[in-house]
Write a structure and sequence with these properties.
single chain; about 300 residues; alpha/beta; nine-stranded mixed β-sheet; 8 helices; 9 strands; about 30% helix; about 15% strand
């Protein structure tokens, strides 16, 4: 048996091409596999568009009653104390902080609940240190309405809330719907329409890139040493587009474990939308004429007939 070996000279490129399937490389995992798409996702994306169009139209109607407003809600918990914060700042020396972010080393755990007014480019954050509950979420909406909303929209009879799909304002939460009825809709006689973003689509929520991103840039590289520090960073947040922000601290304790039974749910004046009802619903105030108010789609159809489906 004879074996002949021939030595050939070849370039580096040819050698790599020959052995590319035989050589192993240091690689990373690529999270590119999607969960798939279905018709409900496309329908819900189309459902979010009408409120945004209506908001743009009413924004240029300075003399007419404001009837539609948008709120975007998001919450991210923060440890208060000498903890590292991503980013860098101009300074002579570096700020020394703890090498670990243990909860036991924190002064408190701030729970910020953000509300962003799309028309006025104004953000409002309530900071608590108890629990992120549905009662806390709705009462923050009430605080916003009393402090800003009722003055900006004196003739408003409807509120449109663009919310994420989970957390204290999740689409499955009975407590969230119950307090929207009892604390917001009935008290102020407002029709409350809620449109939820899909699970995993919170990054498309306008509050992320119009409000929270600006706060992250403003406090980048700075530790949140105390309550006043985090309040100041929020209140001084602005950008070139005219963003304004305000923040308050909420000391009221909120408790988890509140249960809403079926009888209480049946008492709500709750109407689910025909399209994707699990993500779209309207709560009308009890004992009022709000049941006869036109839906968002009806308002949009009326504006289409008038040729006002876009705003400058």
């Amino acid at each position: 048996m004879r074996i002949s070996i021939t030595l050939l000279k070849c370039s580096k490129e040819i050698t790599e091409d020959i052995f590319k399937d035989l050589v192993t490389w240091l690689v990373q995992i690529l999270n590119t596999n999607t969960l798939g798409q279905n018709i409900r996702q496309f329908l819900q994306c189309d459902r979010i568009v009408p409120p945004l169009i209506l908001l743009r139209i009413y924004a240029v109607r300075q003399g007419s009653p404001q009837t539609v407003k948008g709120w975007d809600n998001r919450v991210n918990k923060e440890l208060i104390g000498l903890f590292a914060n991503a980013g860098a700042v101009w300074a002579n020396v570096s700020k020394r902080v703890n090498d670990h972010d243990f909860r036991s080393l924190a002064i408190a755990k701030a729970i910020p609940y953000g509300i962003y007014d799309l028309l006025f480019k104004h953000g409002f954050i309530c900071l608590a240190d108890s629990s992120d509950t549905a009662e806390f979420a709705v009462e923050n909406l009430v605080r916003w309405w009393k402090k800003f909303g009722c003055n900006r929209y004196p003739n408003a009879d409807r509120i449109v809330i663009l919310a994420d799909c989970g957390g204290s304002n999740g689409n499955r939460s009975r407590v969230w719907k119950y307090f929207l009825q009892t604390l917001l809709s009935d008290v102020f006689q407002l029709q409350v329409t809620v449109v939820h973003y899909l699970a995993g689509a919170s990054k498309w929520n306008p509050i992320e890139h119009l409000f929270f991103s600006a706060i992250s840039c403003n406090r980048a590289g700075r530790p949140l040493e105390c309550w006043q520090t985090i309040l100041n960073y929020i209140r001084t947040t602005t950008n070139k587009s005219g963003l304004k922000a305000d923040a308050v601290r909420v000391t009221k304790p909120y408790h988890t474990g509140i249960k809403i039974n079926q009888e209480q749910m049946d008492s709500l004046n709750l109407i689910y939308n025909e399209v994707c009802p699990q993500w779209n619903y309207t709560i009308n105030p009890k004992n009022s004429s709000a049941d006869k108010m036109p839906t968002l789609e009806a308002c949009l159809d009326e504006l289409k007939k008038k040729g006002e489906t876009s705003a400058p």
